[in-house]
């Protein structure tokens, strides 16, 4: 009897019939077999798994009574999420060619490198694995991110290994043949403007409009450039009413004007001590005033994955996304068919991960990226 499981989910999707609430379930848990009754929850698999996963540090799988298999560990694959351990790490590492790392909350917090990151990256590279950085933070360009890596003591990272949402916004316009005679208005940082320029587009706005004021005057129109064909909204620490009005007019009044969001992160680790409002706040303001939904090019959209696949020529099943956010990093990996690893150094705590209402589960989770060093050195 074969068993297969959906990626990043604890729902059984193979020959086993759907398990309804109130149906007795047997749980294979190493050398123990326990019968449970599914709880009253919209996803009974999740509740049952959380109940049994702490019993022993061994794989656990749920089956209906009449389809309970032989107690063979090879035919009983573990359900997500698994705490990363010496037992399961080797299998994960051997099955992956490329590791995709988020940056904020995974590699660094603000301007502080997280302990052990540099050594971990060097060790992964020494084993012949590819290392790529996929960040939703659009404030910097890829060139500026490479400089940040160097300033934090990680000189081995090159611009070509960095895929930022600022780069994704420019590439979206490029692959969709955005007219070169059209301009792009930016609510965001210098990173977006630099990537637009590198791709051959004309950008305006950004930090330059940070000090401008929008004033209500009778019989006076707020002027905007009619040649703007796209508005890109990203993280903007200098967001103001002027930028919102300018962007809104472009989207609502310029025929065919695109509304592009680098990402919709609610918060981010802009400093090492606390979280700050993310690009999602700026995007939400524009959604409200334009009554439009944006084209999202950053995680969890799989738009950036097209470039990664083209660059490395590998299957997504041979990739592992390492991140600190469930709704962007982990969902991005799952949407693309990658393996997923959550680290707890950023916005997601273990209690967040395991709480009843959480519907996004990584394949694995661990405290910090540097745990990889200890696991690789384990006998």
Description:
It comes from Arabidopsis suecica. Pfam families: Hydrolase_6, Hydrolase_like. The chain is an alpha/beta fold and 379 residues long. It has helices spanning 44-53, 86-94, 117-126, 142-151, 165-175, 190-198, 241-253, 279-290, 303-312, 326-336, 350-354, 371-377; strands at residues 24-29, 32-37, 60-64, 82-83, 98-101, 108-109, 112-113, 130-135, 162-164, 183-187, 202-205, 228-233, 258-261, 267-268, 276-277, 295-296, 319-323, 339-343, 364-366. The strands form five sheets. Strands 4-19-18-17-5-8-9 form a seven-stranded parallel beta sheet, with helices on both faces. The protein has a five-stranded parallel beta sheet with strand order 11-10-12-13-16, sandwiched between helices. Helix 7 links the parallel strand 12 and strand 13. It is elongated. The model is unreliable at 1-78 (pLDDT under 50).
Q: Which features does this protein show?
A:
12 helices; about 375 residues; alpha/beta; seven-stranded parallel sheet
Structural class: alpha/beta
Unreliable stretches covering 5 or more consecutive residues: 1-78
Oligomer: single chain
Mean pLDDT: 82
Helix proportion of residues, in percent?
25-40%
Give the CA-based shape: elongated
Q: Biggest sheet, strands in spatial order?
A: 4-19-18-17-5-8-9
Task: Please describe the biggest sheet, giving its number of strands, its sense, and whether it closes into a barrel.
Answer: 7 strands, parallel
């Amino acid at each position: 009897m074969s068993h297969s499981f959906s990626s990043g989910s604890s729902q059984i999707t193979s020959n086993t019939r759907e398990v309804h609430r109130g149906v007795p379930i047997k749980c294979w848990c190493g050398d123990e077999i326990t019968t449970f009754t599914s709880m009253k929850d919209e996803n009974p698999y999740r509740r049952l798994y959380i109940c049994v996963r702490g019993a022993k540090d061994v794989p656990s799988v749920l089956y209906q009574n009449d389809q309970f298999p032989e107690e063979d560990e090879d035919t009983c694959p573990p359900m997500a999420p698994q705490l990363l351990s010496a037992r399961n790490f080797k299998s994960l590492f051997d099955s992956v060619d490329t590791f995709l790392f988020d940056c904020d909350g995974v590699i660094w917090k603000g301007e502080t490198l997280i302990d052990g990151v540099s050594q971990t990256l060097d060790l992964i590279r020494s084993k012949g694995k590819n290392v790529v950085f996929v960040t939703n933070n659009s404030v910097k360009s890829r060139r500026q991110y490479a400089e940040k890596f160097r300033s934090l003591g990680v000189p081995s990272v090159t611009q070509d290994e960095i895929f930022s949402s600022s780069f994704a916004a420019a590439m979206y316009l490029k692959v969709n043949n955005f007219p070169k005679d059209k301009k792009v208005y930016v609510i965001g940082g210098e990173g977006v403007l630099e990537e637009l320029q590198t791709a051959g587009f004309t950008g305006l706005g950004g930090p330059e409009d940070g000090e401008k004021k929008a004033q209500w005057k009778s019989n006076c129109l707020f002027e905007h450039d009619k040649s703007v064909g796209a508005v890109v909204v990203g993280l903007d620490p200098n967001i103001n009413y002027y930028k919102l009005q300018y962007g809104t007019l472009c989207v609502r009044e310029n025929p065919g004007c695109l509304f592009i969001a680098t990402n919709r992160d609610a918060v981010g680790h802009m400093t090492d001590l606390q979280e700050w409002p993310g690009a999602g706040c700026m995007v939400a303001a524009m959604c409200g005033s334009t009554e439009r939904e944006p084209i999202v090019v950053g995680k969890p959209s799989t738009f950036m994955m097209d470039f990664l696949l083209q660059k490395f020529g590998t299957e997504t099943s041979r990739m592992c996304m390492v991140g600190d956010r469930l709704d962007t990093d982990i969902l991005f990996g799952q949407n693309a068919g990658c393996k997923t690893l959550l680290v707890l150094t950023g916005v997601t705590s273990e209690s967040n991960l395991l709480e009843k209402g959480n519907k996004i589960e990584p394949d694995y989770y661990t405290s910090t990226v540097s745990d990889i060093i200890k696991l690789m050195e384990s006998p």
